[in-house]
Design a protein that fits this description.
about 350 residues; alpha+beta; eight-stranded mixed sheet; five-stranded antiparallel sheet; 13 strands
Length: about 350
C-alpha cells in the first residue's frame, strides 16, 4: 500500500504522514512535550474533548465554504479560551508574574500576515493578530501599541484575574524556587519550553492558512518573544504549504523552521512529510532544541513531526474524519502507529 511505503521511509525520522484528497482539511496542535505520567485520566479526557471542539469549530467554517483563515481563527479561539492550553486564558507567567502573549496568522493565498507580541490583556490574541493583517499596513504590533489597537478595533480585553489559573501560578512558583536554588528545571521543561496552540487549514478553494498562539515560556524574562509570532519561524503559509510550530522557540527562530519546511515543499518539491521531518527532527535537535509542528500542503497531505514524548494534536482529513491524539504511540486512525516515544523517565526537553 502506498501509504505504508511512505511511512516506512519516514518512520525512522519520527514523523507521521497522511495522504488525503485535496479538499477541506484541518490540523491543530495544543503543544508538544507531553508526559504520559503527568496526565491524569480526567485531564486527558478534557484535553481530548477540547481538541475535538476546536476541530469542529474550524471545520464548520471550511464545510460552509469559508476561507482557511476563518477555520484557523475559529479553532484557535476555542483553544485560547480553554485554560488547559498555554495560550490566551491558560497562558503561563513571566519571571515577574506578568502575562505576555504572542500570536500570528498568515494567509497562504495572498501572503498577508499579522502578528502580535507581548500583549497582556487581550482575551484572544489570534483575533488581534488577524486584525493587524486585515486592518493595518503592518505585520507585527507589540505591547502597549498592540493593546491600543485592540481597543480601537473593539477586540475583547480581560482583566488579570481572567488569565490567572492556579496551575500556571504554581508552575511559576516551582520554577522560581529552582531558580533560587540554581537547579535545572528538569521536571518542568515541557512547561517552560513548550505549550503553544496552532492550526493549519486547506479550504475548498485550495487555499492554505496557518496560525499560532502562545503564552510563551514559563518563567521567561519579561520582554522575551518566541517564534510563534515571527512569520517564517513558528508560523508560515504560502500557496503550497502551511506550518505551525511548537517547541523551544529560540531554535525555531534560528532555523526559520516554518519557512524552511515550506521552502523544501514548494521549491525543492520535497514531500511534506520528509520536509517537516528534516527540519523538526534533524535540524532543530542538532542545535539542541526540541518540539514539534503541524504541516499541510495544497494537496491535503499532512505531516505531524515531533521529537518529544507526546504532542496534543488533532486533524480532520479530506474525507471529513476527525482524529485526536496525544502520545507518540497512538494509532492515528489509518492503521499506522506513530513512532514510540522515549520512556517517561528520560529527559523531556533540553
Amino acid at each position: 500500500m502506498k501509504l505504508r511505503r511512505l511511512w516506512s521511509l519516514f518512520a525512522a525520522c519520527g514523523v507521521a504522514a497522511y495522504a488525503h484528497a485535496a479538499g477541506p482539511v484541518l490540523v491543530i496542535h495544543g503543544g508538544a512535550g507531553v508526559l504520559r505520567r503527568d496526565m491524569p485520566p480526567a485531564r486527558e479526557k478534557a484535553i481530548r474533548a477540547a481538541l475535538t471542539q476546536a476541530l469542529e469549530a474550524g471545520y464548520a467554517e471550511l464545510k460552509a465554504g469559508k476561507p482557511s483563515v476563518d477555520a484557523v481563527t475559529a479553532s484557535l479561539t476555542v483553544l485560547e479560551d480553554d485554560p488547559l492550553f498555554n495560550a490566551g486564558r491558560g497562558s503561563v507567567f513571566t519571571h515577574d508574574g506578568t502575562l505576555e502573549m504572542d500570536a500570528a496568522i498568515m494567509d497562504g493565498y495572498t501572503l498577508r500576515a499579522g502578528s502580535v507580541a507581548a500583549v497582556s490583556d487581550v482575551k484572544n490574541p489570534i483575533l488581534l493578530a488577524r486584525a493587524v493583517m486585515e486592518h493595518t499596513p503592518h505585520v507585527m504590533l507589540v505591547g502597549a501599541g498592540a493593546e491600543a489597537f485592540a481597543q480601537a478595533q473593539g477586540i475583547a480585553r480581560a482583566k488579570p484575574e481572567y488569565f490567572r489559573t492556579e496551575e500556571r501560578w504554581q508552575q511559576l512558583q516551582r520554577a522560581l524556587k529552582e531558580d533560587a536554588a540554581d537547579h535545572p528545571h528538569a521536571d518542568d521543561d515541557a512547561v517552560r519550553h513548550f505549550g503553544t496552540v496552532g492550526a493549519v487549514a486547506l479550504d475548498v478553494h485550495g487555499h492554505l492558512a496557518a496560525g499560532t498562539s502562545t503564552g510563551g515560556m514559563n518563567d521567561k524574562m519579561p520582554g522575551r518573544v518566541g517564534d510563534s509570532p515571527i512569520i517564517g519561524a513558528g508560523t508560515y503559509a504560502n500557496a503550497g504549504c502551511a506550518v505551525s510550530g511548537t517547541g523551544w522557540g529560540e531554535f525555531y527562530m534560528r532555523t526559520v523552521a516554518a519557512h524552511a519546511i515550506c521552502t523544501r515543499v514548494t521549491q525543492l518539491r520535497m514531500p511534506i512529510a520528509r520536509a517537516a521531518a528534516e527540519v523538526i527532527n534533524q535540524d532543530i535537535p542538532a542545535m539542541g532544541g526540541s518540539g514539534g509542528a503541524i504541516a499541510l500542503d495544497d494537496q491535503g497531505h499532512i505531516a505531524i513531526p515531533f521529537n518529544t514524548h507526546g504532542m496534543f494534536r488533532g486533524w480532520i482529513d479530506g474525507a471529513g474524519k476527525p482524529h485526536v491524539a496525544i502520545y507518540g504511540d497512538e494509532d492515528d486512525g489509518t492503521g499506522e502507529l506513530l513512532p514510540a516515544p522515549a520512556p517517561d523517565d528520560a529527559a523531556s526537553g533540553p
